[in-house]
């Protein structure tokens, strides 16, 4: 079984827990996930099945979330799972003040990941160092936030803001909650988080673990085709002879006007998805004698194999 599962992760499970449960339900050895979700978070967790695990690195990084930020509270983890550091009522904070601050957190911004995160420093995860009591400065990273839309505002001693956030890979919503609170001199922490989209997978199309189990029992579960999540990559169509050679590891020279050098989907002329290739400039690669002979009529980019899903082409 090769393909993807659009899983609706429940609260209380780690992303690794979800992979383990899917592995047991489907009786598969090769299962992986794209884009870690914190245990308290819910929503879209792309799961790769079988040979599709080799495609995870090519998934687009864009994601979307629905988040609730609570003001007046600071915690060790930048969400409500951690120890409360301070809790100071801010009943005078207004939605207008918050809306005036939000543009500071859109576009390409500098962000410090939460101390409890999976970022590696000195060969260890930040959360491992934090749990061991080691004070380590997290590296500042550039991330991109495409849009923040206000969905709701609940005033009170500890007012809450509900927002929809569209962002690029590597963006921590916990850090946005923390930094927005600091910018407003009120403190802030993430109260809840749901991922509504990831790598083209949408929450409305996702399956819960219970729904997955039911479909498996009924024999109706069908994984999402591997190519579905890769439509952001250009497609190269090969003839039957070219497809066979490419699947066997040979590199193919293409017409020069096709594409710039980049990763691409490789398809057989009959529409079958063969895998992921890499387009490179001729001067960046050395062809063997057979490849030179096969490519004598062309002077375009060279197509090499990155991931081959159909060994025989």
Can you describe what's shown?
- With 313 residues, the protein is of the alpha+beta class.
- It is built from 7 helices and 18 strands.
- Strands 1, 2, 3, 4, 7, 10, 11, 12 and 13 form a 9-stranded mixed β-sheet that branches. The protein has a 5-stranded mixed β-sheet with strand order 14-16-17-18-15. Strands 5-6 form a two-stranded antiparallel ribbon.
- Helix 1 packs parallel to helix 5.
- The longest helix has 12 residues.
- The radius of gyration is 23 Å and the shape is elongated.
Helical content stands at: 10-25%
Distance between the termini: 18 Å
Which segments are poorly predicted (pLDDT under 50) over 5 or more consecutive residues? 292-297
**Overall residue-averaged pLDDT value:** 89
What class, by secondary structure content?
A: alpha+beta
Broad shape: elongated
Please count the helical segments.
Answer: 7
SSE string, helix = H, strand = E? EHEEEEEHEEEHEEHEEHEHEEEHE
Give the tally of structural domains.
3
CA radius of gyration = 23 Å
CATH-scheme architecture of the largest domain: 2-Layer Sandwich
The share of residues in extended strands comes to: 25-35%
The count of DSSP E runs of length 2 or more, i.e. the number of strands, is: 18
Short account of what is shown:
This protein has 313 residues and is of the alpha+beta class. Helices cover 19% and strands 34% of the residues. Helix 1 runs parallel beside helix 5.
